[in-house]
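Supplementary material to the annual report.
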Amino acid sequence: MIFLFFGILINPPSLIHEPCRARTGSSKQTRRFSLVTNNLESLATILHEARKAAKPIPQISKNLSSLTRDDAYSIQEKQWQFRQAAGESLVGWKMGLTSEAKRRQMNLDSPLYGFLTDRMEVKNGGVFSLAQSIHPKIEPEIAFLLSRDLQGSVTRAQVLESCAGVASCMEILDSRYDQFKYFSMEDVIADNSSSSHFVVGEWKKDFRDLDLRHLQMKMSVNGELTQAGISSDISGDPVISVIELCEMLFQRGQILKAGSVVLAGAATTAVELKPGMKVKLEVDGLADVVLSVGGMR
Ligand code: OOG
Ligand code: MG
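Predicted assembly:
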């Protein structure tokens, strides 16, 4: 696997730029497409294996700066296919870098998304073991549960009409890259936008009286406040994260399906997880969400 990775890095395939040519047909072009696919698939395999083994890898853009954003989402989608083949099911999506605090912390400039599977969910009040993680962090978010499909360009009112519940939520991030560092948006997107796990509080179904733009959010570790923000720190309004996700998915030929959970992005910077931590998020008007950290790294 290491040889495969360095093989790709030493001989960065200019082919990676040309996925569309494949669809035009001649045998030469078909071959080209299969080479492209193989390269993106190899990168997806490397990231997938790094996650499973909890062993970080060098940032893929370090020697492959030609990777496009579309390539990066293709790598992400391939990892979803590997996980689906292993029996995982899609439960929703996470938006990331929707707050200024996070963009500054990660030195990147625009929102991105990743997929969430059933195996990434940790029960509220449960224990998260560090055994299978590389360098996990946790961050305070707000989640939405959709009751209807949403597609393409949608309004705030349409999102709210299609929403069955709102909840406080914490996302656990774990970059598969050395030192939790990236060189580009493409690195992060290819790595499923650093998503590792998530924990959602009880869904509030009658959320219509809540002003979703003005909810105080407080995350504490072992009773001590560490992160404080307001829901408007997330995209100016967390509902806008759902609107943006819907548009971004549409550009990749996908829709936001009924039943999906959507994490709107963190309101503050993330906190490194250490054994023995008890992390709690309190959001105005929503039920608390709590997680304990166990296991060794
Ligand atoms: C990228 C993912 C950011 C958020 O909520 O802003 C994210 C990262 O920080 O590694 O999930
Ligand atoms: Mg997040």
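The radius of gyration is 19 Å.
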